[in-house]
Predict the 3D structure of the following.
Amino acid sequence: MSSPVVLLVGFEPFDTETTNPSMQIARRLDGESIAGRTVVGGILPVTFVDAPIALAELIDRRQPELVVALGQAGGRAEISLERVAINLIDARIPDNSGLQPIDKPVLENGPAACFSTLPIKAMKARLDSLGIPCALSLSAGSFVCNQVFYWLCHVLGNEYPSVRGGFIHVPWLPEQAERHPGQPAMALATMVDGIRAAIECALLTKSDLHVAGGTTH
């Protein structure tokens, strides 16, 4: 009998970048055992049409116990645990297929917003204890990351209500930040350690902490 699975997805590079830290983290942790569960890494396309389909197919195929989606947030200095996804696509740049939807819903007639079901305050406390820069965030943006986060909430809530999931943004890698003078970055090893700890906390924490959030984004 196979062990339970954690699905960890990242994104391919976009917007002139040649790499994406979320992709690298998913690849690094693919196959690793965390709290008795096997991590399955996946890479999503940065396209509004294909990303939700690819995510839903991975969930259906892998039947995970937990789903964590990662995305790149250039300009942020810490790992951002996203609290809420909004039903809005408002792309400041085209996706990798050239589409640039403006003021469109993720899901017609869907709720205005939906929330992570990960124990994000407990996860923040865990990363704080390790000295890994981390913050709670109220904005996952309005690009493909937010779309995938919203779609994840929709799929899990309607088809897999016992499965918890959410979204985490990570900063640029140092080699990316070199192309953006003055912008913060984080070493890949630090991000991998942080996401590993966040996954372990999510698997072992049944009820989230009820403390002030300290949200910064």
The radius of gyration is 16 Å. The longest strand covers residues 37-44.
